[in-house]
Each structure stands twice: as C-alpha cells, then as structure tokens.
Amino acid sequence: MNSYIKRGRVFIENVRPQVDCGRYRVKAVVGDDVRVTADILRDGPDLLQAAIRYRGPSDRRWNEAALTHAGNDVWEGSFSPGEIGRFRYTIEAWTDHFATWRSYLVKRVEAGQVVDLELAEGAGLIEARLPSVPAAHRPVLSAAATAMRGGAAMRGEGDGGTETGGGPAVDARVAAALNPEVAVLMTRHSDRSGAARLTPALELTVDRERARFGSWYELFPRSTGTKIKHGTFRTAVKLLPDIARMGFDVLYIPPIHPIGVTFRKGRNNALKAGPDDVGVPWAIGSKDGGHKDVHPSLGTLQDFDYFVAEAGKLGLEVALDFAVNCSPDHPWVTEHPEWFSHRPDGSIKYAENPPKKYQDIYPINFDTQDKAGLWTELLAILQHWVDHGVTLFRVDNPHTKAFRFWEWAIEEIQRDRPDVLFLAEAFTRPKVMKLLAKLGFTQSYTYFTWRNHKQELTDYLTELSTTDMAEYFRPNFFVNTQDILHEYLQHGGPPAFKVRLVLAAMLSPTYGVYSGYELYERAPREPGSEEYLHSEKYELRPRDFSTPGNLRPYMTRINTIRAKHPALTRLTNLHFHHVDKEHLMAFSKSLPGSDSIVVVINLNPFTSEEGTVDLDLDVLGLSEHRPYEMHDLIGDTTYVWSGRRNYVRLDPQAEPAHVFRVGS
Amino acid sequence: MNSYIKRGRVFIENVRPQVDCGRYRVKAVVGDDVRVTADILRDGPDLLQAAIRYRGPSDRRWNEAALTHAGNDVWEGSFSPGEIGRFRYTIEAWTDHFATWRSYLVKRVEAGQVVDLELAEGAGLIEARLPSVPAAHRPVLSAAATAMRGGAAMRGEGDGGTETGGGPAVDARVAAALNPEVAVLMTRHSDRSGAARLTPALELTVDRERARFGSWYELFPRSTGTKIKHGTFRTAVKLLPDIARMGFDVLYIPPIHPIGVTFRKGRNNALKAGPDDVGVPWAIGSKDGGHKDVHPSLGTLQDFDYFVAEAGKLGLEVALDFAVNCSPDHPWVTEHPEWFSHRPDGSIKYAENPPKKYQDIYPINFDTQDKAGLWTELLAILQHWVDHGVTLFRVDNPHTKAFRFWEWAIEEIQRDRPDVLFLAEAFTRPKVMKLLAKLGFTQSYTYFTWRNHKQELTDYLTELSTTDMAEYFRPNFFVNTQDILHEYLQHGGPPAFKVRLVLAAMLSPTYGVYSGYELYERAPREPGSEEYLHSEKYELRPRDFSTPGNLRPYMTRINTIRAKHPALTRLTNLHFHHVDKEHLMAFSKSLPGSDSIVVVINLNPFTSEEGTVDLDLDVLGLSEHRPYEMHDLIGDTTYVWSGRRNYVRLDPQAEPAHVFRVGS
From residue B475, how far is each of A58, B465, B545, B561, B575 by CA, in Å? Predict the structure, then answer.
C-alpha cells in the first residue's frame, strides 16, 4: 500500500507517438519536430504542469521540452532530435500548487474577499521553494513573500499599492503575489516531488534523412559488359556518372557473391542451365566462397571497394542485397550442415512451395540447434560489408526468416552504426509487412506496384500516411523490380511508364527504379506473367541507354523536382483532392517554409482525360477570392487558377501529369 | 542473445479486448461470451495453432478455449467465465509442424510426386510426439507411423490401398498419413515447446449481472414520515413493496449518517438553517458520530439492518452513498485534524470553488502525511457497511478524491467480496470519467441527462457502445437526480417524463429514477436552474404516490418489458435505424435466443410527429420480402410491417414511444 500511495495523484495516459504500447520503436529523422501528445489527469481542479523528457545517445542527461494544455485534458508539445541513434522519451507531469493558489487568489480578489490568510499561505508556498531555487532568483521571491506577509513592501511591475499605517495595504500585498516574474519563477522551479512519469520511457529510432527520402536505382553490375562478356565492378563504375546525373541517391545491386552451379537455372528460368548460363545471383555460394566473398567474374573485394568509393564520390550510396539462403555449393553445406534442414535420408532440404521445388536453393533452418552460431555468422556477414563501406542493405525475403533474427541483427549493427539502413523486400501478408517494419527495418517494399487505380492508390496511401503505420513503416515505392513487371506497364507503353514514375516519386518520399525502365522494357516472359522476358536474373543483359526518346531526361526532371521541393521529402503531409473523373487523380504536399506541390495525373495511359480539379484551398493556404499561379514543373508552363474548381486536360501521349509548384 | 533466441518464432499482437495496453481491467458479466481476437504471425508459410488460456479465481489451473484463423492473420475465439471475480487471460500460439507437413503431403500427392521420404518424415513427427500423448491414443498413432514407413498396413477410413509384394503400396501409406483421427490427435497433442505467450496475462473483472443490468430507484428515507416528522428506516420500509412491485432492483439511499450543525444549510440552500431544518445528508458527522454511524432520527444500526433485510426479501438491493467529506462537527475534526488541510491560522479549510465557499463541508486532504491511516479508515468504513449487508455503493464525487485511493479501495473490497459494486457519481471531464471507470468503478453516471436531441443521443450512445469504452465503462442512465432536474423535464411535462424514461430504460442496461419522477415533479428552484424547488437535499419531502395519473403504472410496464427481454440487458447490441424526421428516433437491440426490441420514439414532447422508419432488416434478421409483426409492448397492439420503410405517427400526449417486440 505505501509504495502505491507514493505514486501520486497525476495520471498520464494515451501517449503518442507510440507503437503497440511501446513494444516497438517509433521512427523519425534527425531534425524532425517530433510532436508528442498525452492525456494528463488528476483529481480535483488543481492546475498541472507537464514536460516531455527526452534523451539521445550522446546526451549525458535528460532534456526537457514543454507540454501545454490543448483542452479536454490533452497536452501537446514537441522535441527535435539533433543526432541519429536511439532516443528515449517520456512525460513528466505534476501539480503546480502555486499556479493553482494564484488562480484562486485572482478570483477571490475579484470577488472582493478578504485574502489575508491566502496571502500568508502563498508566501508559505514561495518560502518552501526557496532552497530549490538558484541563488540569483531568491531575492525576488523572498521579497515577494515578505511583501505578501505584510512586511517590507514590494512593488509589482507598474502597480503600486497604497501604504497605510505601519505596513503596506492589501493592494500592494496582492500585487506582490501576482508579480508575473514570481509566477514564472515559481512555475519554473515548482515542486515535482509528486510528479507522475511515464515508465518505462518510449523509444524512438532517429535516422538520417536517407531513411525517409531517397531515389533508388537498381543495377546488375554483371550486365555492364556485353551479351557474352560478364560485366565487372570496374565496367559498372562507368555507368555511375549517368545514374548520378539523373539524380539518384542510392544504387541497389543484387547479390555479388559466387553463384552455385548445382541445379543452376538457365535463361528464362529453365530448369537446366547451359554451359554459358551465368546463374541466379540469389543462389549464393560455390567453391569460390559464400556470403562474404565476391563473384570472381565481378572482380575482387578490392574492386568492390573501388566501386563503392567511386559511387560515393558521385553522391551514390551502394545498397547491397542480403539474401539468407544458399546454393547447394555454398561452403556452409559442408562446414555447417546443422544450419540446414535435413530429409530422412540425410540429404539437405531444398526450397519448396509444394508442389513447386527450387532445388538450386537451400534455405537456412532458423530452428537449428546452433542458433547462436548461425545468428552470429549472419551478423558477421552484415558487419563485413559494413566494413567495406555498405550503409544500406536490401534484405531479400525477410518474411521467410525468423523475425527475431532481424530485430536482433538490426539492433546489433545499429548500436555502433546507426547510419546503416535496412530495406525489407517483402510482398507478403499486410500484418507481416507491418511487423517487419516494427521490428526495425528502416524501409519497406510495398503493394504500390499493384495499386494502379485511383481508389486503390488513394486507399493505400491513406493507410500509409494517416494510420499508425506512419509512425514506423516507411514505404519505398518501386515502379518495377527484377521480379515484377506489372501488366499496366506491359500494356500502357511509354505513357504508363511516366505515370508510374510520377506517382512513385511524388507520392512516396523514397522510390525506386530498376534498370531498363528508362528504356520502356516491358516484354513479359509469357502473357499473364509479371516476369521479364530474358530476365536479368538468369542472363547478362547489357543495355544501350543512348536510344533516342528514352525516359532518362524525364527521370532527371522528376528527381530534380524532388531535390528542390522539401515538401516531397515527407509522407504524412500528403493530401488528396477531389477530381470528378475516374482516371484523373490530384494530390498535394505542403511543408512550412517550402512551396506546395500539387500533382494532377491521368491514370489512363491510352486516352486524353479532362475534368475539374476541386482543390482544398485551406490545405494549400490559398484564398477562394484571389487567383493563384500554378507553375507546371514538367512542362515549365504557368497557369493562372482561381477558386476551388479548375479545368484540366491531360493527354498521356504528350504529358500524363502536371506537377505544379503552387504560386500565390 | 540466448534468452532472446529462445522466445521462438511466433508473434502475438493486437490482442482484444484490452484496455490501455493491459494497464486496466476489461469488464464482463458472469456467463458472458468473452470474444477474444489477436493478430498471430510467424515467418514463412507454416501453419499455426493458438488458444485462449484463462483462469478464474477458483481455478486451480489454466483453462483453454480455441482460437481459429479468421483470415488476414486475425485469430478469434471466446471463453465464458463461470464465476465472479478477477480472471486472467492470455493467448498461446505455436507452429503446428504435423499439420504443415500434412498440408504439403496433400499437395505433393495431388501433383503425383514421389513421397517416400516425406512419409518417413511424417512418421518421425508422429513418433516424436508419442511420449507426450495419453497412452490410450498411442496405438492409433503408432500404427499410422508404422504404416507410413511401409510396415504393417493401416487402413484409412473408407480408403484401402493396394498391397503389392511384401509391403503396402504408397496409397495405403498415404492413407495412413492422412487418417483424420491422426490429424486430430496430432493437433491436440502438438509440440508447444516453441509457443509464444502473451505476457503478462490480461485481466478481466467478472461481475454479477447487476453490474450491467438493473433498475435503480433513489429514495430519501427521511422523507417517509410527514412534513414535520422525520422519516425513519422503519417508515421507509413501508414504501418498499410498491417500489419492488414497480420492478426496481436497486434502492439507492443518500448518506444515512449524523448531519453537522455548524454552517448547516437551510431550505432551498439558504446559507443559514432555521432551528427545524434537517440539513444536508452529505454534510456528514456530528456529536452523534461519523461515517460508520446512523443518524439518530433515522433509527439505529439495527433499524438499518432491518431495512436492508426487508428490502432484500423484496428483491431490492440497497445502494449506500459513500461521500468522503465531513461537516465541521465530524469526530475526525478533533480526532484526526491531520486528515484535513489547514489555513495559516490553523483553522481547517472548508470546501471552496473560488470565489464560492461551502463552509458546511470540510474536504479530506488526500495529501495528508498520514495517508496510510486515512486510506485504512476509509476502507474500514466501506467494510463496515458491507458487513451490514450493503453490496452497492454510490460514490459521491469520486473525481475530487485521489484516484489511486479508489483503485486501491475497490480492489481491497472486491478481493474478498467481488459481489460488491461501485457506482461513480461523476459528471466531470470526459477523460476523468473514463479513468474512474478504468480504475475499477463498476458503473458510472453519464451525460445522458444533458443529451436530449436525436443527434446528441446517437453520438453519445455510439461512443458508449462501439468504442473501447464498451470494454470498461458501464453507463447508469439516471433520468433525474436530487441535483439535476433538466429543463427538458421542466418544460416538457408528463410526455417528457415518458420520453426520458423510455430512452434511459431501453438505451442503457442500467438506468435510474429519483423519487418524485413518477409524480412529474418539475418545479425548479428558479428559472434556469437545474435544482429542484424545495429540494429534498435541505428539507423533508414526503410524497403521496396515490395521486391519479402518475407514472407508476408506466414505470411498471417499462420495467416489466426490461425483465422479459434479455436483449435489453446489453449495451453493445444497440443499433440505430434511420428515421427521416429530426424528432423521431429509432433503435433496436437484439441478442441470440431472445426477441429483438425496436423502439421508435418522438423526442418532441409537445407535438405529434410522423415519419418513415427505415429499418436495417439484416440487423433484425428480417426479410425484405416477407411482412413481419411488430407488437407494441406499451400499447399491446400489433402492427404488420413489410420491407424496410414503414410509416409511424406518435402523439406525445397519447404515447410518445413504440416499444416493439419484433415478430416474424
């Protein structure tokens, strides 16, 4: 009972942001204004004070930021994390006895009541706090207390009080009590001995900007040679300047390790490989080594270092693929057979999705008796590549590996290297994708690829940007991947490629493009398939990026717009606006101190569409009564719009989208 | 790392019901079907099993109830608590390796694959579980395993398999593997060694039915004498048969303790009492004693015991008022001055809401240095009255006393006496009212009194019945109290009294009436006031309940309807139906195994209203194509309705409401 009693009279409830009762960390980016709200309650009418307390990895003590009462017992405030790493934050709330007393005094004085005893009580409150107040402030408070008790007068600012007889009149005593400086000092140094505090503190992962905002480009280095000559890191380096010039920030490369030969797949996923077939990069491991090694045909580890360094000089970060599975030729098959599952005849189980068999892949058995050995080695692989300059990992199919491994491994890496980021390549059940993000993945692949209609896109983006997913799930919108060529692109031709690029780049702070997109590559392996014909997964696919009419200038323009308009670096500022046509969609992003961007897009790649955009002017800070300029950043044209409703017409053959900077 | 690894591969998330991450208890009633849902996830495609585990106060071990997969990784199930008291419940979930293996076997067999190794693997799974299976079931499993390995054949039900050569054919081995009995046994006895479990368990307060469903009647026993002669428990007993006959379950009586004389209030809240004024029952304490004593004018403690016993014989429970404050004459003022706040001159602080003063009341100081002594004595008071047969407390203004005291005291009382229930009389800020309910109050007063329009009522009831409030906050809808005579009643006359009675009794499982309602008492102290003229708080107010035309028969009818229709015992089954008029409202309650009730009511007490009710037929289990009977239980009339839309006309002077039992 006694320990319970001591917990005081204030309750802190419903603290936001918070993911699953604090079980998982909220995500933010360094410099963000992290807005915190809570319900703070106590019995009776006494006035409260509350503060956010937060602490970054290099803070020696807790910092405080103000919380203020926003009505209905909700308190709100914010803090701005100034470094990357894991932050803790909590809330402290306490009764402000002096402020309560002061508010009552005002009411009593207004009602003309005798307040002698109240003044003496207030003086007592001040005197009780004196030992806890810095020496410099004590004289002001002491003088006030003395004056309130009717001792030597102290004058309130701009307010006198008439002295009568031997002591000051009540007016002067009240003025001393209500001196604003006293109120400020008493609030600043109020007694927190009965304070409530949210325990345990909540946690926040503070990442660098790239965790939220970036333009990704995927490239197979081996395709930078010729049709028959395997590309290398050194030939790949030659493509980097163009990729950087297009405005990309991240270069994602599939696994670079030795590839197995046993059950190697041939071109177009043939069950048997020909002698010249290069194999699938995700079938990792051969006599040349495993996950810490480089495929000899790509070069050496030193060549990889050179590649990473050259990319870095151009402002390109290299994102390496991390695929936790092995070819039958991986060194672990003999060194660590216990890390695999075995069939009754002692053979190692290959990957299956019964009745389908994937005999070129041995999945790792996370239920192995040697979990500690396995986890440690997997972590060592990540650390190995971090030591070679990798700061981003694209993790292959994390949803088929033990979830707890990811939580542990990401935490282990980020403890010393909070700048290292992880992208989850999972296109699985929605709740699994959310869980992976909660467990620590910095970014996530999404269902964007399969959201092509206006309602689908609106619903999905509303979920991503307005539900509690926004606290922990950061989307990376890929317009295509080596595994997904959506039929919208197959059939829609170049206008479809523009549409999906604009959508990805404008809706999501992070988006990605897989090589060949700029050439409108869109032939499926067979009708109805989302696989590419002559997929680069199975063969070399050098490309000629100098073909006329390709999408490179358009990509460059889109990335330039992204770089110049900070509103596009965020997700939760997304707002959809009504358009009266099924295929026309409009949305905007605004950010204080930045231009607003409004996108109007025709989702129909075949036909011109016209309609009326109904802008929520309030969201854009525009007036119903004043015309405003809309600068199309793609066409470099300026339109003058007025009021909510304005006509648009978009011909996909010419230009399927307006990307407007909103003028005034 | 090692302890983390051991936590296994299954995740349990988003468990419902749950109040504030399990910080507070969910509420239910004995015999309820408590529906539990959770997101249950693991990596990969393996099949899961999950169960609710729950444990009541007299259970020696945990019980289990099934959870089944409802799609999208959501699992659902329910359990039914069979006793009152505190229950714990949690969820356990694990991988079902045999079911996973079996589902793959089916696919492999369908695809015509060779399954020898798979059959051996399955046999191994069975054999590994044999030691954990009750002896009676082992032969079936052993035989299956043997057959699967190609030993002595075991026949699947209705399926043979051709024996060839020395052993059974694959068909027979497969049939043995797919034997449904084997599947059932392997699931029932599956390996839970890697099970995930929600910890700590969640908690559930299981109350008796009266916690949710009941009809309250408030009576001042002192008004059961004459205008000048103080009523007693023995005169009050004479009114009990009529109250019971009206169908009420609970008799709430204001404080019965000695009343202070210092600063005693006079009639109509006069600052000075006359010599004959009886004082306010909430100004507790005099030379005759304090909270454990009975006002001498009401009788003795033995008289109170007699009153409680007589009420009990009539099926009426007595709810006693618990008001934690004192008159200046309370024994504690001299015995425990440290339990009060003091002014600088040493005098005890009276109650104030500056600039208003309430000098007849000394509030308790919950910040006293002797918290333990104070809390212990307050608990002893509750225990004292429990020992005298009180099983319900109506707690006066709990929001002005330390919240933690309530949490502690309710828990202390209910540990031994879980049948004792607490009603919070708080009409304060919404989040404070919610917190009191979370902290343990069984029931709560509400804002119902001030919700008189259709939209207000719909919004408020939607909040109460569909948000997470429904898990912990049980409304008690009082149509009036000794403190609140709403202007709707003041102006609306008898029809208004019927309207509010029907709304309270049909919308909320628990509702209450304060004495005099049946006589349409509606004179305010002054225009604009919600106080009664000649309020019973300050004077004796004997009543003649035999006046013709009073509301007693109507109340009796309403309570009879409530008693006969179990759908009215619940809140979360409330459903509003559209009516095309502002003053006409329609709602229904349904419960499996009970008739549905549909209420159509005219909220305008002055004028007839007609309109079209648009019933959600699905909710009522009715067909668009078949007429159905609507039996009006107030007017004893049957209407035949058909389809969704039906005409109604309600004249408030005749009958402002239809309360229909839905026929078929």
Answer: 50, 10, 28, 19, 17
